[in-house]
Known about the structure:
By secondary structure, this protein is mainly alpha-helical.
Amino acid sequence: MISRITYLRELRHELLHYKGDALREFYYLEAEDLRYKATTGQWNIIEVFEHMNLTNEYYIKTLSEAVEKAPPATTDTFSLSWFGEKCINIMRPGEDGKIIKVPTLKKIDPLHLQKKGKVLVEKIVFRDFIDGMEQLIELTENMESVAIDKVSVKTLLPLIRLPLGDALGFITAHTQRHIEQAYRLARQRGSH
C-alpha cells in the first residue's frame, strides 16, 4: 500500500520532467537530426514522438472518461494491481537500460501510418506531445480526489483492462521508455 496522493504527485513530476526533456533536448534539433535513421525500419526521433502522441491520445481520452466515472476517494491508500504492476514493469526500461521488446500495434505505428499517407511535421509532432503531457499532468491533479483503483479502463489491447491508477502508471512508463529511445537515437546521430 502506498499513498494515492504521493503516487500521483510522483507521476506528475515524472511527466513534467519528460515534457521539459522534449522542449530542452529535442524540440530545437535540426530536421535531419530528428529524421536520422541508423538502419532501415528503425524509427527516427520524430517517429518516436509521434508514436507517443498516438498512444497518449488514446489514453488521455480513456483516462478522462474514467476520472468522470470514478467514485470519490475515501482513503489515501492505494496499491497497484498485480497485472498492472507487471505491465508497468515490462514497459519501463531496466536499471541497466535494457528493455523488453513489445510489438507495436499498427494503429500506433508511425511507419505504418506514413505508408498510408500520414505526413509528420516536426513542430506539430512536438506541439502535440507537449499538449498531451499537459493533459496527462492535469489528469494526475484531477485524480487526487477520486478512487483510482475502483474503476478500470480499456487499454489499446481490447480485452485488457487496467485500474485507472495502473493505466496512468503504464502510460508514464511508456513515455519514459520512448524518451530514453529518443536519447539513444540522438546519441547515434551525435546530436547529444
